[in-house]
Amino acid sequence: MSIKNNLQSIKSTLPEDVTLVAVSKTKPVSELMQAYDAGQRIFGENKIQEMVEKHDVMPKDIKWHMIGHVQRNKVKYMAPFVSMIHAVDSIRLMEEINKQAMKHNRVIDCLLQIKIAKEDSKFGMSKSDAQSLLNSKSYAECTNVNIVGLMGMATFTDNKDQIKSEFDYLKSCYDELKSTNPIFNTLSMGMSGDYNLAIDCGSNMIRVGSSIFGSRNYN
Ligand SMILES: *Cc1c(COP(=O)(O)O)cnc(C)c1O
Q1: pTM of the full structure
Q2: N or C: which end of the chain has fewer CB within 10 A?
Q3: What is the CATH number of domain 3-209?
């Protein structure tokens, strides 16, 4: 199957209100361009430098999503162009994004990453930490950051019941926080292995890599 065929077959099954982020980390520009030529305009990367390099050489109508963990000292490199940052997990990171966005006269859409997996390795905040951030004086003063929803990653497991309960929990957090943050419009959950389940649980943004581009080689 080609990248174009993979994309078309995934998109043909998606409900209209679900946005597909094509996760292109580790993949060469030539392969991203195959997706672009098939109509894909939203790409997700997890390393800032790699995203900057691809942004520099690729068409300017692409929306770049940073889906990985963000180090504060690197926010400045993506602030001029990044379209959404999925994994905000602290007030300090939000403040740095605000500061850099301000320099470019931009308002950057962000999601708060909620820790839903049982594994230690996954980043993210608790629901109550997210609640406090959204209610903070600091967020009120961050005029150049819009927090428009939540993101989460389920445990890496074959146990569908466990994944479903983690997605259900994230959806309940989303609904609860949205009730006091009407700007919320994005729930980013679901990857190649679990995006159908995620959509059934209420996701409206999926991040799909290997099902589009094939498996990744990190060497
Ligand atoms: C790599 C990655 C994905 C995509 O994973 P696939 O299993 O290849 O679809 C989604 N979200 C995040 C945060 C990732 O780092």
Answers
A1: 0.97
A2: C
A3: 3.20.20.10
